[in-house]
Design brief:
- By secondary structure, the chain is an alpha/beta fold.
- The protein has one domain: HUPs (Rossmann fold), CATH 3.40.50.620.
- The chain has seven helices and five strands; from the N terminus they run E-H-E-H-H-E-H-E-H-H-E-H.
- A five-stranded parallel β-sheet has the order 3-2-1-4-5, sandwiched between helices.
- Helix 4 runs parallel beside helix 6.
- The termini are far apart.
């Protein structure tokens, strides 16, 4: 039997990434899982410097992590609220590498991440963090599409018709 003791939700703080929360928490409630949410500040943003505004790399990393944690906590609060226990984590680096690294370090049982749903040229040029994580992860990965179904699976009319209520 599979037990999901530790579940990771990844987020880039976009509305698309919020889609993963509902699925992750549903599973987390079933298994009483320890829940983590990870936001990665991309390395390219972390290493950007303006002339005359140089900052020690360690100071910059510390500042970016602190800023990222504030943003992550606000994001979690607005999408999850305070009733659920969740451990926020911020890292600086390349998203797929940091996700895979955290999964291994923490001994996770599941990674839940939303996909942006890009196709065609945009997907080819920008790539997909979710795709790279799925391909290289030793941990099961659940990917969630960002848009919920627009129509209910069971419509009221169908039920009423089948039960001869109308």
């Amino acid at each position: 039997m599979v037990y999901l003791k530790k579940i990771l939700i990844t987020t880039d703080l976009s509305e698309h990434s919020a889609a993963a929360f509902e699925h992750a928490f549903s599973l987390g409630l079933l298994y009483a899982s320890k829940m983590f949410v990870l936001h990665v500040v991309e390395e390219a943003h972390a290493r950007f410097r303006l002339p005359g505004h140089e900052e020690d790399v360690q100071q910059q990393s510390t500042r970016l992590e602190a800023e990222g944690l504030v943003k992550l906590n606000q994001f979690v609060l607005s999408h999850v609220g305070t009733e659920r226990k969740i451990h926020p984590i911020v890292r600086i680096g390349i998203p797929e590498r940091e996700i895979l690294s955290f999964a291994e370090e923490e001994g996770l049982d599941l990674v839940v991440m939303a996909t942006h749903g890009w196709t065609g040229l945009k997907h080819i040029v920008l790539g997909s963090v979710a795709e790279k994580v799925v391909r290289h992860s030793s941990v099961p990965v659940l990917t969630v599409k960002p848009k919920p179904m627009q129509e209910p699976v069971v419509r009221r009319e169908d039920v009423e018709s089948e039960l001869h209520l109308k």
